[in-house]
Design brief:
The complex is a heterodimer.
Chain A (H helix, E strand, L loop, with lengths): L10 E12 L2 E12 L3 E5 L6 H7 L10 E9 L2 E2 L7 H7 E4 L10 H5 L1 H5 L5 H14 L3 H4 L12 H13 L5 E5 L7 H14 L4 E5 L3 H7 L2 E6 L2 E7 H6 L4 H7 L5
Parallel strand pairs in A: 3-8, 3-9, 6-7, 7-8
Antiparallel strand pairs in A: 1-2, 1-4, 4-5, 9-10
Chain B lengths: L1 H5 L2 H31 L7 E5 L4 E11 L6 E6 L3 H4 L3 E5 L3 E5 L5 E5 L4 E11 L4 E3 L5 H46 L6 H32 L2 E5 L5 E5 L3 E5 L6 H17 L2 E2 L4 E2 L2 H32 L4 H13 L4 H24 L14 H25 L3 H9 L4 H30 L2 H4 L28 H10 L4 H39 L3
Antiparallel strand pairs in B: 1-2, 1-5, 2-3, 3-4, 6-7, 6-11, 7-8, 7-9, 9-10, 12-13
Helix pairs in contact in B: 2-15, 4-5, 7-10, 7-12, 8-10, 9-10, 10-12, 11-12, 12-15, 14-15
The chains are: A alpha/beta, B alpha+beta.
């Protein structure tokens, strides 16, 4: 890091003693970690280790699961997320999300991008047009689709769709973007483009990305957290964690001995 | 042989045979209905037979079949002239026929009563001053011009009739008001009551005046008549206003035949039935059927979609929900007559009587809503078809990938916004499928209608120019019931046979038409919400 101040001293998100249950089985155990502002944090770990569940705690997507229960504290810029008083709609505007499988709506590219604004009741055409251009440029998609903004988004390629989903997420100006294995369904070329995009977005957004791809975590992230069976095993700067893991399990995982 | 079986050929053949059987059966049905239905209006030639013993027969040949004792063939003729012979149809043993010809002058007369008359025109009589046109004065031309004069008079008469109807309607309304005053105990000297009474008196006077006018015009009409003669020389006087259509069957050109066919078809689609429904038009039944299905959709569609939305999107997945879902699926299997009985008990006698007691107590014991009517029949059918809508809507919603819901929610939309902006548009083709299925089912149902408001002859349409225009409490006619009624309840089944096929064909066409429109709509939605542009 160029500046000498530790980015973790002013974190975007702070998680303390987070426990998470699906019915009677516990999925996450006493997690404590911080996400640095305007940095990329990668969550790695074998399948079923709870990293996706954890990601979904950060924008309360687990609310949709009837039997889910969350204990502990998550603070977004000091605001407690795990509270009944919290406006979940407002939270999800501040914490955007990109999914493993791209999920564009069966609408035009234009309408997909401004969906978040439409449901917020924004009707000003100038604002909408400006947002579409800014978001698509931000998602490095503008040049490819600027001539067919009003065609269906379902006619795009897989990589384009995923970048459209990113554009859709940044259209509402979130503070944090959660990415749940955004490249797992993409070919290498599209993956490279999305990774480049993540690096560009880092200047403006706090990004938390779940990935199975160790190289990807090493390439795009500033910090890495290693999860195993619902526990946070190790957290540190990506450079340090990958070069010199302190934990034996982390070392085994990143060297490919299991996972 | 072994490889033949092991390759699975017989199974493939079996499936193909099953499909072919189904298609063939459906096709046979359609073809039979088409041939009989489309052919019903074709004006066929009149044949004159001379039988042993000198008797003659004039009529349309219908069919030929072996005698019951297989000693030869017999032919069935439609001989018409029910008022002279007592029967419209006659079987003739071929062995008895000694002569056969197609007389040029033979005329078919379609009458508004007693069915067809087949015979020869002798004389046309026109009143004021009375003139008689005999064989020398080309009576056929005279008949045509006289019929024109009669038609003009009839138009005037129809005008008077419709005036009588509206005066009658107004009179009824005023008498209802009077009844209401009586029920409320308003005294006889109340100015409002007196005003109503005066209004009734003036309406009654107007009514009497109109009736006199009608009598007088009818008197003018009766002066026009024609003398016909049947093939055996019996004369028959026919009033010209009783003639619906008449034409020289054996002289007609192809174009002339097509013209008569078209005019009959038009009468079918736009006219009122006559001759206890075996002749004339089906307009009230067509109108009743379409309106019934339409009103039914208005009830069942929103109800079913909203119920399905709750079941799929909000209800969770507990034991209770699963039981409800099974129950809904099974509702579709309940015999429709059970729905009809329920509709009679619940809607007609329950809600309908309740409405009568609350809003129309002065008319009791004459029921207003407490008797079968279009509204109750529609509600009964809505109940019958709502499971179909629920099941298809639920399936359509369930087929939307979960990622779409999450994507919308993750952008900060509420569940309701997700539902209205994303899920319902995406499910709309499936929902339309449900609507199509339910409409087709509703249009074909007869049993529940028979006890909730269908009649064989409705005096008025459920939609007309009299305020409040929609009269959903009225009884109505229905094509499905019409088929049952004229096909199996008619006193003259043989004469009704062509009409049964025509009605069937019409019902099938209407169902096809309504489904076709809905399918077009669905395809447009499919295009819009899957691949198309905006």
């Amino acid at each position: 890091m160029k500046n000498t101040i530790d980015p973790l001293s002013d974190p975007a998100i702070e998680v303390e003693h987070l426990n998470f249950y699906y019915g009677s089985s516990q999925a996450l155990f006493d997690l404590n970690l911080k996400f640095a502002r305007r940095q990329v944090t990668a969550l790695i770990g074998p399948s079923g280790c709870g990293k996706s569940t954890f990601l979904r705690c950060l924008n309360r997507m687990n609310d949709l699961v009837d039997v889910a229960r969350m204990e502990g504290s998550i603070r977004l810029d000091g605001t407690e997320i795990n509270s009944n008083a919290l406006d979940v709609i407002e939270l999800r505007r501040r914490v955007g999300m990109v999914f493993q499988k791209s999920n564009p709506f069966p609408k035009s590219i234009y309408e997909n991008v401004i969906y978040g604004l439409r449901i917020a009741g924004i009707k000003d055409k100038a604002v909408l047009d400006e947002t579409v251009e800014r978001s698509l440029k931000g998602a490095a998609l503008w040049d490819e689709v600027k001539d067919r903004l009003h065609e269906s988004a379902l006619g795009m390629s897989g990589g384009q769709m995923q970048r459209l989903c990113i554009a859709r997420a940044i259209a509402v100006n979130p503070e944090v973007i959660l990415m749940d294995e955004p490249c797992s369904a993409l070919d290498p070329k599209s993956t490279a483009r999305v990774e480049d995009l993540i690096k560009e977005l880092r200047d403006q957004y706090t990004i938390i990305i779940v990935t199975h791809n160790m190289q990807q975590a090493a390439r795009v992230s500033d910090y890495t957290a290693f999860f195993f069976e619902g526990l946070l095993i190790e957290f540190g700067k990506t450079g340090e964690l990958f070069v010199k893991p302190r934990n034996k399990q982390t070392e085994d995982y990143i060297t490919g001995r299991f996972g | 042989m072994k490889t033949f079986i092991s390759r699975g050929e017989p199974q493939v053949w079996l499936t193909a045979a099953a499909l072919t059987t189904t298609l063939l059966m459906g096709l046979t049905l359609i073809v039979v209905v088409m041939i009989n239905g489309l052919g019903a209006f074709w004006p066929s030639r009149l044949v004159e037979l001379e039988l042993q013993g000198g008797q003659k027969v004039l009529g349309e040949l219908l069919r030929r079949e072996p005698l019951p004792d297989h000693s030869g063939m017999r032919q069935q003729f439609k001989v018409g002239n029910r008022d002279l012979y007592g029967m419209d149809f006659r079987w003739v043993d071929e062995k008895q026929v000694i002569g056969r010809q197609w007389p040029q002058q033979a005329i078919t007369v379609e009458r508004s009563e007693y069915g067809h008359f087949f015979g020869f025109l002798k004389q046309v009589v026109v009143p004021q001053p009375e003139q008689v046109f005999d064989a020398g004065d080309s009576p056929w031309q005279q008949l045509a011009s006289a019929r024109k004069a009669v038609a003009a008079l009839q138009d005037k008469l129809d005008e008077v009739m419709s005036q009588i109807n509206s005066v009658n309607y107004a009179l009824e309304k005023e008498q209802d008001r009077l009844l209401r005053f009586d029920y409320q105990g308003v005294s006889g000297e109340d100015p409002q009551r007196l005003a109503v009474k005066a209004e009734i008196e003036s309406l009654k006077a107007e009514f009497a005046q109109l009736v006199r006018q009608q009598r007088q015009q009818q008197g003018q009409l009766t002066g026009y008549y024609a003398q016909f003669e049947d093939v055996n020389g019996r004369t028959k006087r026919i009033e010209l206003d009783g003639i619906v259509r008449c034409y020289p069957s054996n002289e007609l050109s192809l174009v002339g035949r097509c013209g008569i066919y078209a005019s009959k078809l038009w009468e079918l689609l736009s006219g009122e039935p006559r001759e206890s429904n075996t002749e004339g038009g089906l307009f009230p039944a067509i109108f009743g059927t379409v309106l019934l299905v339409f009103v039914m959709s208005l009830f069942s569609f929103p109800l079913g979609v909203i119920a399905a939305v709750y079941l799929r999107e909000y209800a969770g997945d507990g034991l209770m929900v699963r039981l409800v879902r099974i129950a809904v699926n099974n509702l579709a299997g309940i015999p429709s007559i059970v729905y009809g009985i329920f509709g009679l008990g619940f809607f007609v006698y329950g809600i309908g009587s309740g409405i009568d007691q609350l809003f129309f107590p002065e008319r009791l014991p004459t029921p207003t809503f407490g008797t079968g009517g279009l509204l109750w029949a529609s509600l009964t059918l809505a109940l019958l078809t709502v499971p179909v809508v629920i099941v298809t809507t639920e399936e359509a919603l369930g087929a939307i990938p979960g990622g779409i819901r999450e994507g919308s929610l993750a952008l900060g939309s509420t569940r309701f916004q997700t539902l209205t902006r994303i899920l319902l548009p995406m499910a709309s083709p499936g929902i339309m499928t449900g609507l199509i299925l339910s409409m087709a089912r509703a249009a074909g149902e007869v049993a529940p209608l028979m006890i909730t408001g269908v009649v064989k002859l409705a005096p008025a349409l459920p939609l007309d120019g009299q305020f409040p225009f929609f009269h959903l409490e009225r009884k109505f006619m229905h094509l499905g019931f019409h088929i049952y009624d004229i096909g199996f309840q008619s006193p003259n089944v043989e004469a009704a046979r062509p009409m049964v096929f025509v009605t069937t064909l019409l019902l099938v066409l209407i169902v096809l038409l309504m489904s076709g429109v809905a399918i077009r709509l669905r395809n447009r939605m499919k295009k819009k919400y899957t691949f198309g542009t905006f």
